[in-house]
């Protein structure tokens, strides 16, 4: 689907002219075609279309042409992650049979409502939010049926399939078919980078553009990349073997290391590398604390997935006095259940692995603990060279004639030897402070002066203050 209103919405309006909620045509006057199309789209999204309305059971009975007690209902509650995927399936069928279906609001006073799904494109994708949809026989089934979807924020979100009791044998297969299609290749969120947050008291997903970072932008010991590739092989090169041997294709990795050593940079590089092949979910701390189970419940809808849980020591710290907090219990129970799923990789990060509850770090929950060390002298020199190369390249972006030769003018090995026990973030700040003091005229002496001066180190002030 594209970012336009599905043609089923326009079809339900009748003659094609935009209609007010009262059902009267809107007089648009002498407007251009593009303006008219925009207004028609807004009217449709806001529910200003002429449709039959009614409570789902009685409305379904009317169109199924049976008494109310002859209507069979098949309810499927759905999470905030699953329901939009079901809605996307319903939208495709509504488009396919647009000239045959009937659309109504879920109550007499309500017009059909469309929701907007962020799929990472220039425009969000409209999907059914709250509406009844009647499908005649020989459309999605050999028999007539009604799909009633409701994403009400504070109610029981889900979809109900209504059929005549004489046709109720089609109910369960129809519900299963929608769910199967929701997890198929047509799922609009598969292969994207998603932010999992909490909005209005429920789990919400929004798309994020991959940063474009690559492994070349991250200086790490080769052994760290080797271990990361081994972890990723669970759902790539070793996937079929693990499945055949019954060993499962879900795994957990904990990245540890001091602040600034590059844990987040590693995740950004992996997200760029894996996007389109896998779905990447970046979970906020609130999601990890309160919605971790809901996040994982329907995660298989997204295909092979990497879930990133940063700074989990804030949630899974050691229990006090033998008591286990509710968030920790939920976190541990959820990780226990991940192993029963397929193609789910969990990457957690922490600055202090000793602060984690021991129960969180065991095979089946976290299978591998991988430490990212602070860089040695050689790695520090490589990082400085990388940072200076970026500055040199960007200095001539607007005018190639203004490009400064920086890298060759700085002895990065000498600067790397002037500091010890520092992180990549520290080295970046040394470069940044040197630019602040001297602009683009960087030299070995100036960088050494900044590095040895220590003013780049963040430190709390010492002394007495009023």
Automatic annotation (TrEMBL):
The record, for InterPro entries, names:
AAA+_ATPase (IPR003593), AAA_ATPase_domain (IPR050168), ATPase_AAA_core (IPR003959), ATPase_AAA_CS (IPR003960), P-loop_NTPase (IPR027417)
Write out the entry's keywords from A to Z: ATP-binding, Nucleotide-binding
Under the heading PROSITE patterns, the entry gives: AAA (PS00674)
Nucleotide-binding keyword on record: yes
Q: Name one Pfam family in it.
A: AAA
Which CDD domains does the record match to this protein?
RecA-like_protease
Region entry Disordered, spans: 1-32
SUPFAM superfamilies in the record:
P-loop containing nucleoside triphosphate hydrolases (SSF52540)
State the Gene3D superfamilies in the record.
1.10.8.60, P-loop containing nucleotide triphosphate hydrolases (3.40.50.300)
- Family to which the UniProt record says this protein belongs: Belongs to the AAA ATPase family.
Its name, as the record gives it, is ATP-binding protein
Q: Which organism is it from?
A: Nakamurella flava
The lineage is: Bacteria, Bacillati, Actinomycetota, Actinomycetes, Nakamurellales
